[in-house]
Amino acid sequence: YKTKKPNKAAVTQLLNLEFESRRQFINSDAIKEQDRAVKILEAYPCFRELDHVLDELRRIIQPSNLKYISEMKDRWEIFYSKVQFYGVMKKVMKPPKTLDGGN
């Protein structure tokens, strides 16, 4: 990962292969809680990139589902559009108030 343009596919493959040892390192008591994030980023600078962080999330939550992140993004889009719709509808359906503020 020290090259100017690291190969994302190669980095992902290495992260897949060493997942168990990385989880042991992260969960170990050797790292103080307050230093944990700094030590992880020192050991794994690739986690400064969102793609690698999302891949790690997939490895933790659903290791066998390679399409997990894209499915989550799709589900989020559907959820977000429904929330927006219901929010707008609630605002539109609000009963009118009289001039004196009473109903």
Write up this protein:
The chain is mainly alpha-helical and 103 residues long. The protein has a domain of 67 residues. Helix content is 62%, strand content 0%. It contains five helices and no strands. Helix 1 runs parallel beside helix 4. The longest helix has 25 residues. The protein is elongated, with a radius of gyration of 22 Å. The termini are far apart. The mean pLDDT is 84.
Features:
103 residues, mainly alpha
Shape summary: elongated
Q: State the total count of DSSP E strands.
A: 0
Extract low-pLDDT stretches. none
End-to-end gap:
65 Å
Helix content: 55-70%
β-sheet strand percentage: under 5%
Sheet of most strands: none
In short:
The protein has 103 residues and is mostly helical. The chain has helices at residues 8-17, 19-27, 36-43, 50-61, 68-92.
Write the layout of secondary structure elements.
Layout: H1 8-17, H2 19-27, H3 36-43, H4 50-61, H5 68-92
Helix pairs in contact: 1-4
